[in-house]
């Protein structure tokens, strides 16, 4: 066993530092998952992004699709979120099925010779994912001589200069007849042979004889010296989209599949803009020894298939109770929210486009407590105020499966069932827009889960594109996800994710009265209300009927404790079940809970009143130990966020006013 930091002298026995048992650490719960409609990006693949610009590069800008995914992710990062997983749902039929010939743009590269007698080489490239964005790609392939050397040659052999690596599959251009006639040869392997002067030389073995150059016998000198060029390809891909200029360049590409940087393999594994289409030749032989560049032309034009988004885009055919817990779903075909639900990293889940066809009565975006004064006029010399277009309802832009409250509840209950199955993340639900209070109460009665939280009303944000500035709908769950993540990062998990302004919001779909707010809070629906500085999230409750799990901070705290014990307790496997091990486990869990106690996570005044950890002989009798089992019990008393301040006013006989809080 090697001990770091221990200086050894003469042979003997040296005492190293004692190895401490691994401890338990808090698990990060600020990573959000977003599922929705985008104009570009990987289909049904949870893709990590850590900034809005990174999302733009991968999935496009807000105005490029009718969905609300872009506005949701923008609000998350603007609020202070640091990491999200984004999944773009697939139109139906899916891109891997039939009838989707217009889904992905195809570009053709033609490497042609100097005249019609030379057969051209055609290479087809797909856009990396579906959508009309791929039609504008510009691809340039240039064949270049990256280096030249002089080699002795004979038959299928060429000497290789020291320090020049020529991997199998490298294409060489060999100049014969004193540099008048070029010919191409592939490197098969390397070898060492006698050079004819008593020395040894490293040679490369070619795939074919050099025409007109005789083979060499053992010990014979080299017949002649030849000029040799190493030929590689450079690929440049440009996407001239107006939102973000995307450009890739790959140099030193091999033209054979045997090359360590084969063009087809590199583009498949590294490019974010294109993919090789169909079968490519195993070896790409230039039709002209003068080399040159080829520019792509559009072979298949793609269209955006927003009108083919359907309910099946968000869910697959696998029942929630059959999904694996904690990941490991590679063998299943999962789509949309189902696919995102098995990601072990996410702790918050928002699907801003889940209800695009369930708007009961599309509500007009109203001015929220913004006063108007008809007698006032704009001062001379000042610009006219910006006039924004109304919010675009996504329901009229995407194909739907029925605009009803029942449809909304079916989909959202499925999301909650996924959260209950995984017991790792909280499903953030958007209350369907335009509901009367009676329907809203019926919607609320359909849920009873501490792994779900509801947000109301819908918000609006400002988007700017080629048409100018206009308002777009913003799912309140997206703003809530950003608030929850930022609150955890700034203050810690025990703090309730509420009492924060939605930074991106400029309007609300409905301005609630005090009486409406009171009733919604009683139902456990978290409300955004207009305040002086913006729209404030006034609560952080779950949709659970259990009073102990009514607060979102409590649900997240209990989830974090369970995940921390599961993930960081793996070191206990195969350890001997001894009193020392049980003591170490008790101490490790106690240290984790003590840190949370100091952060205000528990309600007790002392540690003894806040938590306890038991892992003694009473819980682990000999018969249990013989079964290879270890039992520990942990009890905590979570603190609940303060929701109400009761102020008592009193007046004595002298008229003095007293205030008690």
TrEMBL record:
Domain Tail sheath protein C-terminal: start-end pairs: 546-648
Top-level taxon in the UniProt lineage: Bacteria
Pfam family, one: Phage_sheath_1C
Protein family per UniProt: Belongs to the myoviridae tail sheath protein family.
Protein name in the entry: Tail sheath protein C-terminal domain-containing protein
């Amino acid at each position: 066993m090697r001990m770091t930091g221990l200086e050894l002298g003469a042979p003997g026995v040296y005492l190293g530092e004692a190895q401490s048992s691994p401890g338990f650490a808090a698990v990060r719960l600020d990573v959000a998952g977003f599922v929705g409609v985008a104009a570009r990006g990987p289909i049904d693949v949870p893709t990590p992004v850590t900034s809005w610009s990174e999302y733009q590069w991968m999935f496009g800008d807000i105005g490029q699709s009718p969905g609300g995914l872009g506005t949701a992710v923008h609000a998350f990062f603007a609020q202070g979120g640091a990491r999200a997983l984004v999944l773009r749902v697939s139109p139906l039929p899916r891109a891997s099925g039939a009838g989707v010939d217009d889904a992905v743009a195809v570009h053709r590269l033609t490497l042609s010779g100097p005249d019609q007698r030379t057969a051209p080489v055609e290479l087809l490239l797909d856009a990396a994912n579906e959508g009309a964005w791929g039609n504008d790609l510009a691809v340039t392939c240039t064949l270049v001589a990256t280096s030249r050397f002089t080699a002795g040659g004979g038959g299928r052999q060429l000497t290789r200069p020291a320090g020049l690596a020529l991997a199998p599959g490298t294409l060489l251009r060999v100049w014969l007849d004193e540099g008048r006639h070029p010919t191409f040869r592939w490197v098969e392997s390397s070898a060492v042979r006698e050079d004819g002067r008593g020395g040894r030389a490293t040679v490369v073995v070619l795939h074919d004889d050099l025409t007109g150059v005789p083979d060499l016998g053992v010990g014979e000198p080299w017949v002649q010296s030849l000029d040799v060029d190493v030929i590689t390809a450079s690929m440049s891909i440009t996407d001239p989209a107006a939102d973000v200029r995307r450009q890739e360049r790959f140099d030193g590409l091999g033209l054979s599949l045997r090359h360590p940087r084969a063009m087809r393999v590199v583009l498949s594994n590294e490019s974010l803009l294109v993919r090789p289409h169909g079968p490519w030749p195993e070896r790409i032989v230039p039709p002209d020894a003068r080399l040159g560049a080829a520019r792509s032309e559009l072979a298949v034009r793609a269209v955006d298939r927003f009108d083919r988004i359907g309910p099946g885009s968000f869910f697959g055919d696998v029942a929630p109770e059959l999904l694996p817990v904690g990941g490991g779903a590679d063998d299943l075909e999962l789509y949309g929210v189902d696919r995102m639900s098995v990601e072990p990293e996410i702790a918050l889940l928002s699907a801003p486009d889940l209800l695009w066809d369930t708007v009961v009565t599309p509500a007009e975006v109203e001015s929220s407590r913004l006063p108007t004064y008809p007698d006032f006029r704009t001062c001379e010399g000042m610009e006219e105020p910006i006039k924004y277009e109304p919010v675009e309802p996504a329901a009229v832009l995407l194909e739907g499966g029925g605009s009803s409250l029942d449809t909304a509840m079916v989909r959202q209950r499925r999301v909650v069932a996924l959260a209950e199955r995984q017991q790792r993340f909280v499903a953030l639900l958007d209350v369907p827009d335009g509901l009367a209070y009676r329907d809203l109460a019926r919607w609320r009665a359909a849920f009873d889960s501490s792994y779900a939280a509801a947000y109301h009303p819908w918000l609006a944000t400002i988007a700017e594109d080629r048409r100018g500035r206009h308002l777009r709908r913003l799912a309140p769950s997206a703003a809530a996800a950003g608030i929850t993540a930022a609150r955890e990062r700034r203050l810690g998990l025990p703090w309730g994710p509420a009492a924060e302004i939605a930074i991106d919001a400029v309007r609300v779909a409905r301005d609630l009265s005090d009486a409406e707010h009171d009733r919604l809070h009683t139902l456990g629906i978290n409300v955004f209300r207009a305040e002086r500085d913006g729209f404030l999230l006034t609560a952080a409750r779950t949709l659970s009927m259990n009073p102990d799990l009514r607060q979102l901070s409590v649900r997240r705290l209990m989830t974090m404790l369970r995940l921390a014990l599961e993930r960081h307790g793996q070191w206990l496997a195969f350890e001997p079940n001894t009193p020392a091990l049980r003591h170490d486990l008790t101490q490790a869990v106690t240290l984790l809970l003590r840190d949370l106690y100091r952060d205000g996570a528990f309600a007790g005044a002392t540690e003894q009143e806040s938590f306890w950890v038991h892992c003694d002989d009473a819980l682990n009798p000999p018969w249990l130990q013989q079964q290879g089992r270890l039992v520990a019990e942990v009890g905590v008393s979570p603190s609940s966020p303060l929701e109400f301040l009761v102020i008592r006013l009193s007046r004595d006989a002298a008229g003095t006013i007293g205030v008690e809080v």
